[in-house]
Amino acid sequence: MSQPDAVSDSRPETAPDPDPAHPFARLADFVAIPRVSGLALAPDGRLAVSVQTLDADRKKWVSALWDVDPEGQRPPRRLTRSAPGESAPAFAPDGTLLFVSARPDPGAGKDGDDPKAALWALPPGGGEARPVVTRPGGVGGFAVAADSGDVVVAAPAMPGAADAAEEEQRRKARSDAGVSAVLHEAYPVRHWDADLGPAAPHLFWAGALPAEDPAGERPEPVQLRDLTPDAVPPTGAGESAVLSPDGRLLLREESVPDGPAGRRERLVLVETATGESRVLVDDPLAELHSAAFSPDGTAVVCVRETLTTYAEPPDYTLLLVDVASAETRELTAGFDRWPSAPQFSAEGDAVYFLADEDGRHALFRVELSGGDPVRLTTDGAYSDLQVARDGSALFALRSAYDEPPAPVRLDPRATGQNPAPLPSPGALGPLPGTLHEVRATAADGAEVQSWLVLPEGTSADAPAPLLLWIHGGPLMSWNSWSWRWCPWVLAARGYAVLLPNPALSQGFGQDFVRRGWGEWGGAPYTDLMTAVDAALERPDVDAERTAAMGGSFGGYMANWVATQTDRFRAIVTHASLWDLDSFVGTTDAAYYWEKEWGDPLATPKRYEQNSPHRFADAIRTPMLVIHGDKDYRVPIGEALRLWYDLQKRGVPSRFLYFPDENHWVLTPGNATVWYETVIAFLAEHVLGEEWQRPELV
């Protein structure tokens, strides 16, 4: 459908003024809303969550840990407070709350060095937190044994450094010599926004942490023992590790070569007493990850993700693995969804897992004795699943497009659950609109599910302009609350926001993914247009004022839309793919994408048919290009090339560039500018208002 030359006089050309009662109406209020994540469950049933808020200067978000009542009877209570913040909460068996923080050590004195991230412990009865594990390069993460309380930490280590003292010496020598160079001998060299090397992650045995001295005396520092001394750059020993309940075994993901320049993950068991290791599961056709021990430590459940090929997308299943024999058994055979985050029941007779399902991220249970997985929840998206030790309850964070994440309590067996949130920081009042579900049928008969956010006051007499938002991934779906792409910010300004799940979206079956595999410009594009057509059939949505937006894969699709149709008045493309050949060769994991697209020299067909840059001459729609320079997943060269191609063709366009952001926009100031610029660009081209340049750019 082409864009009309003129707008009907019967349609209003301005959006209603934002209602100041809503925190989404003022961006300063929006970025200040507390953000909940990181749920942890203590053996005695206490809950802790991580809550992000603005720091005193309002220049960054910092996390603090809060206590949440698992019964929902009392209000939440803040547990930690420091300028650097605290994250990654987990409980030891005695109720001690462990967390990672770069807060200063109060016992280090005024002459202490700038603090690195360390493992801290907060006593179960309250009081002052204290650092329990430190490393010269900081602590990246940790695992705690459910029964013994033994601890393993992940931390970067320089090649050849035998202990912490030598680690410090090597780091100081580089610093004193002014050396920042890294010599790479294996692929990859970058990951998301991090340069790999020269240090690589190692896993260190800390054992039982020292108890707090009743007299207040400072305990001796924990002596760490390297369980992975042979780990080398670029990937090292990884940071994903779990301990058996008794602390006797460490299970980690090991990255191994998969063809020239490729990598895949296998599972390795380490005897923590000796450091001896053996491969538990190694599948040349799949990656193994997301493992968890059974309560008695005799079994492991993990995700098996098949390696992609030119012809086939990945598929996922759960494997049950016997620790002693390494024999495996598939738990979800025939289940046409992608299981993730498995955990054993308290009794060890079943496994809980999460999976995308029809625009939701649902909780499932599968019995070890056999049978199909049973879905326990209806609406919403669940994460951070926690199983009570006595089997009486499950806890998780639940969100939806009309609810930010909040902790909930669930029954371990009941179906049809849609629990109310427990009292926690970050609760919101009424939203500036309503959430609806839209379904449409594509030309090939596939059903396309979408979410539609409608602003307050929308009606047939006052239809809302429509924004198409295209998700990233591409192997994901719109199903949960997003602070970065929050439709309610636009709804507060009078826009309807459509969030479709086109071909390649997960949660609709393997065939639905196959429809777009290697043909991103095919079914994914036509599904999006089908979803838009269905939304525009509503009398309360204005078919004459529309725009399209997307980030990452969604940015690719926004670029593709720009080359295929002029039905939209404006297009916003964030962290987007423009030249597929260039992208595949420069992204941080080129081997992954080349499996789908092929070698551009040997099999150029998919590049030629699906790369938006080849159709740049067709673009007529004004475009806003957004990109961060620290984005290694979609390197900045994609945006620079797109921007140049638009400019030399005279396409009305602007380029919002973030020198210090990555694939996302992670600071409050830049996030505010992101929304301000998007809103101003849409107001100019969709509403016909005069361009208002954001003040600080």
What does this protein structure show overall?
- This protein is α+β, with helices and mostly antiparallel strands and 697 residues long.
- It has a domain at 433-687: Alpha/Beta hydrolase fold, catalytic domain (Rossmann fold), CATH 3.40.50.1820.
- Helix content is 15%, strand content 32%.
- An 8-stranded mixed sheet has the order 30-31-33-32-34-35-36-37, with helices on both faces. The protein has a 4-stranded antiparallel sheet with strand order 1-2-3-4, with no helix packed on it.
- Helix 7 (580-586) runs antiparallel to helix 8.
- Mean pLDDT is 94; it is low at 1-15.
Helix-strand blueprint:
Blueprint: H1 27-30, E1 35-41, E2 47-54, E3 61-68, E4 77-78, E5 87-91, E6 97-101, E7 118-122, E8 130-133, E9 141-144, E10 151-157, H2 164-176, E11 190-191, E12 194-195, E13 200-207, E14 225-226, E15 241-243, E16 249-257, E17 263-271, E18 277-281, E19 286-293, E20 299-306, E21 316-322, E22 328-330, E23 340-344, E24 350-357, E25 360-367, E26 374-375, E27 381-387, E28 394-400, E29 403-410, E30 433-441, E31 447-455, E32 464-470, H3 487-491, E33 496-501, H4 510-514, H5 523-536, E34 541-551, H6 553-564, E35 570-574, H7 580-586, H8 590-597, H9 605-610, E36 623-628, H10 637-648, E37 653-658, H11 668-685
Parallel strand pairs: 32-33, 32-34, 34-35, 35-36, 36-37
Antiparallel strand pairs: 1-2, 2-3, 3-4, 5-6, 6-7, 7-8, 9-10, 10-13, 11-12, 13-14, 15-16, 16-17, 17-18, 19-20, 20-21, 21-22, 23-24, 24-25, 25-26, 27-28, 28-29, 30-31, 31-33
Helix pairs in contact: 7-8
